[in-house]
Amino acid sequence: MQLSTQRFLTQATWLKVHLYLALSVGFFFALMGLSGSISIYREELDGLLNPQLVIEEPQGKYQSLDKIMASVRAAQPNRYGSWTLEMPRSPQGMITAWYDKPTETFFELYAPLMVSVNPYSGEVVTSRFWGTTATTWLLDLHTQFRLDRFGWNAVGILGLLLLVSCSTGLYLWWPGLREINRAFKVRHKAGMMLLAFDLHRFLGLFSAVALIVLAFTGFLLSYPSVLETFTGSSGMEHGQTGRPITSTAIPNNHPTGLSAASFVAQGPFPKAELRRVTTPAGDTGIYRINLRQSSEVNQRHPFTTVWVDRWSGQIKEVRNPAKFSTGEVFATWIWPLHTGEALGATGRFVWFLSGLSLFVLYVSGLLRWLCRSGKVRDREVNFAAFIPLLYRMRKSLYRLIFEAYLLIRLLVQKTRQCTPTIRKGYEKLLAWIKQIHLFVINRQKR
Fold this sequence. Notes:
Elements: H1 2-8, H2 11-40, H3 42-49, H4 65-75, E1 84-86, E2 95-99, E3 113-117, E4 124-129, H5 134-144, H6 148-173, H7 192-222, H8 224-231, H9 258-265, E5 273-278, E6 287-292, E7 304-308, E8 315-319, H10 326-339, H11 344-372, H12 386-392, H13 394-414, H14 420-445
Antiparallel strand pairs: 1-2, 1-5, 2-3, 3-4, 5-6, 6-7, 7-8
Helix pairs in contact: 2-5, 2-6, 2-11, 3-5, 6-7, 7-8, 7-10, 7-11, 8-10, 13-14
């Protein structure tokens, strides 16, 4: 029995597992990585593509939530039921009113209506359906391959397979303590096949930990029942609000408004930030107010929740993350850890690079396999040959640098709603690009 186990756990066996996974689903790994990387900066990209959603010069105070909701209902008079108002995360942002199940996309897995409202004037700027914008389409591609529930489940399974692929890759990489130095070498003069192999191994080593975390959290997001079973919690799925709570008060002619309900909800948490307000649906409906305490790792979807009765104006129930069990605290980390928001601006950028690495790993691994299979011939990689080509293309390169300078400058102008850390990073990048641009101009004058 021991001998058969040893035969099974040979390096050749794990190499086959790693290879077959790459050949069968490696393309989908690369697709998830690319779409996920871009989706990390979804809000910034959406503001760049839609300048009307960024308030250049905020002035005055926000309109009341009741006036905001009145504007939304006036713009969408045939949308009955519950709405959710999501507060902007910066003075330059819009309030977004979410309507979960519009008739136009009722049978889709997730395609709510998104109404953007200027919080200072109460003006409805635009109304869009999830999946029809560039950023939401890309996020749907990442989470479900645009295939609804089937794609959602498939992405979860791919997360498990990516875990296996990363684990086998780490096992195959380990050369032993005596040969550890060789594992970090990139042989750029030994031919295309060995260069692709070394790049694959080198990049895989430095991205493996991040990819394992992303694959594990992605699987749990696709299969929240597994997470709830593992943590012994309920109602902790991303976007869920726990058990349903209904009003028990008698309907009357003096219902509590949105602003008043939000004020009451902040009583138990006076220092918390208001994030979302969900309006009641029907006579038994109830206000659901989502707040964020400073101790919460979730930025966009915090778990602090207060339910306020519309008819009595009283608090019906409170959910306080400070009183969560260890399993529930673990569950609150899954979403912000997967998106990178729990790791700050630097962590988000590392996650961005890790997603891109999946594409590079797939291409380099496929190239090596094609070479070994005889479908592509190995050849010398002569980097010196690129120098004359780059010299001939210098005008195009100068133009590319100039376009990059303009793009970064526009990005800085359009990202005032970003955190100071992100904006500072953009400004440093702009200064660097500007130096290159000035150097190019001086070279052209010679």
